[in-house]
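Box S1 | Example of a co-folding query
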Amino acid sequence: MARSEHTVGTPEPADEERADYDHVGGPVHEPELAGALRNRIEGDVRFDEYSRELYATDASIYEVPPVGAVFPRSTDDVAAVVTHCAGEDVPVLPRGGGTSLAGQTVNEAVVLDFTRYMDAPIALDAEARRATAEAGITLGDLNAALADHGLKFAPDPAWGDKSALGGAIGNNTTGAHSLQYGKTDHYIESCEVVLADGTVTTFGDVPVAELREYASRDGVEGDIYAAVADVLDGHRDEIAAAYPELKRNVSGYNLDRLVADAEGEYGEAGVVNLGRLLAGSEGTLGIVTEATVALEPLPETKAMALLCYGDLVDAMADVAPILEHDPAAVEVLDDTMLELARDTAEFADVASMLPDGTSATLIVEFYADDDAEGRAAVDRLLADRLRGDESVTDAPRTAGDALEAHDAATRERFWKLRKSGLPILLSRTSDAKHVAFIEDTAVPPTNLPEYVADFQQVLADHDTFASFYAHAGPGVLHIRPLVNTKTVDGVEQMVSIADAVTDLVVEYGGSVSGEHGDGRARSCWNEKLYGTDVWELFRDIKTAADPGWLLNPGQVVGADADAVAAGSAPSRAETVDMAARLRFDPEYEFEAGFDSALDWTTDNGMEGMVELCHGCGGCRGPQETTGSVMCPTYRAADEEITATRGRANALRQAMSGDLPDDPTDEAFVSEVMDLCIGCKGCKRDCPSGVDMAKLKAEVTHAHQQEHGVSLRDRVFANVDTLFALGSRVAPLANALSSLPGADRLLEATVGIARERETPTLHRETVRDWASARDPGVTAAEADRSVVLFVDSYTNYTHPAVGKAAVRVLEATGTHVEVAARSDSGRPAYSKGLLDAARQTARENVEALSAHVDAGREVVFVEPSDAVMAQSDYLDLLGHDDDATERVATHSYGLCEFLDRNELVREADWAAAGSLTYHGHCHQKATKKDHHAVGVLRRAGYDVDPIDSGCCGMAGSFGYEAEHYSMSKAIGSILYEQVADSDGDRVVAPGASCRTQLSDRPDGDEPPHPAEALADALAEAEPKV
Ligand SMILES: Cc1cc2nc3c(=O)[nH]c(=O)nc-3n(C[C@H](O)[C@H](O)[C@H](O)COP(=O)(O)OP(=O)(O)OC[C@H]3O[C@@H](n4cnc5c(N)ncnc54)[C@H](O)[C@@H]3O)c2cc1C
Ligand code: SF4
Ligand code: SF4
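Box S1 (continued) | Returned holo structure for iron/sulfur cluster
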């Protein structure tokens, strides 16, 4: 198995000598402890304030700053940290992706982040279907390494690309296909573990008969075996009676699995595996450093049916009969989710296929050996469950209709539909949010109808609501009530709902957590769920494994409060209070420290956006397994602070007083905001739509108000004026910039990276050329007219692109006027000079709205300028400004315009060859990059659109000396994607993308799609 990209060979951008960031900031906490750990390990130790705050949150509603963060490089490092911390009485908390929803990944402890260095696959035995990997490997990377062998690690949590193997073990993770595969525990063959006293051991299969022998081992290891032997010798019946009959239950310790293994339920009787006891223990019993897991073959094929119901409770009643058909997954969507999908352009087509009156759907997936088998399974299901021929069965049938999916694309759409509503639920910018605290209760599927009806009543009694969705098959429903934890009433409401729902769960034979674990939100309910006797067993196990209660204390189980008060148990052993340490609590105060300069009315104010990130970690996905546009700076640097989550957390913490620095302080700006390249990837791909690019513009602007604007920022913001001046004396200006030493001088004086070439200016601009020629299509003979906005870069340095755009438009019978201006305001906006950007926006809107009023559409050569007019002008000039709104709705990127108006028809163009298409991130953020692909294909090209993010140039970012290494690190991800693509040449509409791509090894400067289309024109005489 190959080691993952992040581990080997990737240069760390911060290590470059010019980089002015090191990902840390603020005072160092407990410096003696930090120093002692640093002396003992090879990994990194960060106890600075920024790092602590970055690790203070996970995907839950909680926030607890840790003692500090450690990035171990080896098992020895982990053992050294645990041993030293045990001696100092300091708790320790292992962490993977930090995507947990119940708060089990935040604590007052030294956090061990395994994802930075200990994230490699180690061994694969494909024949025996077994793999060994380090604890920090993401499930996405693990599965990518297995795919070629037709194998996979079967548990498939929705966020597997971002979560780690250690986290999957910690939470006993599973996913939508748990009906087929069960949970992580089922796949654990052995775990290398660091125990609470620093002992390193391996937990694997042990005969029950030998447990007492193992119990004679020294220290904690022996104590754990003794405790397990005690449980099996004396408490099997208690456990059988207390644990619910569920496919999915991850509350409490995994004692039922221990008993099941001892009794041979899954294999040889009389053999237990303590690695499986660690599953679901949330880092409280031992720290896994590497694990050997069993693998499953990839299914040959799949088939799906989507059944429609008039009522959620009817759908719930149908789950048990559907399970008789042995599906791999049964997922529910209620009316709220369906309504949200209907309102989302992307899913409206699938949602509109559902018959009127559909208030709930069940998506049923089958695994099959071939298509015929898949079809047959769906046929049998529909014959049994669909209303119609009532003679087939006596059982009541409530599904009114069904859609089928027998091809991969349709199945993908069904799954996307299932996931479509959640982002909208989570994008609420109000103080009340759909929070996770009882979001994964589980009950036996036969009890779902009554349980759901009673749950709805609990919500109504508490004057709130929630939608119901997810894994109906194993009885796990995702339910996030709308609650405002910033108020005392809201917190009380949350606790009261949790209490009432725990009663319901107990009544219906369920569990408080069927998926996400106990953590801070649920540990306090475990005694009610299992009863006092089993709760005491949990304490016995915990005390044996961790006598000082140093491993993630307070989660899963706690000591008796009386014992803590009496001093007979460590104080930290108390079970955490679900209402304590909330991220937003009644004491929370927001103070931005400056007045916003942009319009935030659609986001409930800037505060609404700053508080929007819910911590899911979706911005931590690597390009190789998650693709898309999401945070390229994280992908390049692999640092929490360079992910949108890190920035959002740090910004909120700076604005609510948790960080010592203000958001406009130099240290904060350079460590947190400066590295955001403003690609808008988060706005598109974050489930909540966090818009960090817009927040960055605000903070940079406020910073400049206090500290002034640097020379370089002024230069870049005024690039249009500089190009205009330089173009007039083009040969001289070009000669000066290519003088020996000019690059170094420019770096020393202005801060422009010496490696970057300054663009060559042309004497004749696109505007000059256009005004000197007769239009190819006059307004009188044209089918339509446009004003073509040619950006500064194209106008002065790449006029061939602008000319190609004119020729292509004219070939489609369009009259083209070239706009009198080439500055969209984007350069000033991206440098935070918002007043200057606003002034430019105002002037452009005035000029362009006159064109619009005259019946011309506005077409942009440069994608980021199109997006400026389509959305950023509204932020600058106000969403209620009519002229701005009019310009926004009449503005298009070049290919968008051609595509929407169907102006490129196959018969008229004769392109030859294949293209690799790299879209601009701003276009992707506004979901418009597909237009170019469609147009180029219709012109005759074979197009491979790569699933790339930002190129890393991001306007001027890549030109800046201290950002050069980060820019190149991001660029190298794109270079690899381009190299892997089959296209003959790469094409890219973004000017900065083309610059970055031309720097790749053996790379020519790629053309703009306009040039590729012009080439296609040259090959054929258009008939239009
Ligand atoms: C949007 C979203 C969707 C999700 N979908 C699912 C889903 O479908 N199914 C599901 O089961 N969960 C789901 N989750 C929850 C979570 O993503 C998973 O449980 C995931 O497997 C946790 O992995 P992680 O690496 O983020 O773990 P973390 O959150 O970092 O850690 C989880 C627990 O494991 C412990 N731990 C971490 N590393 C180790 C180690 N090396 N040794 C011992 N203990 C360790 C931690 O202390 C913590 O208690 C979802 C979460 C989100 C935000
Ligand atoms: S920024 Fe978005 S994707 Fe990233 S953690 Fe926050 S909510 Fe999740
Ligand atoms: S704008 Fe781009 S770089 Fe900045 S946080 Fe969002 S995704 Fe990351």
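The longest helix spans residues 488-507. The pocket of iron/sulfur cluster (ligand 3) is lined by residues 630-633, 644, 647, 676-682, 692-693 (CB under 6 Å).
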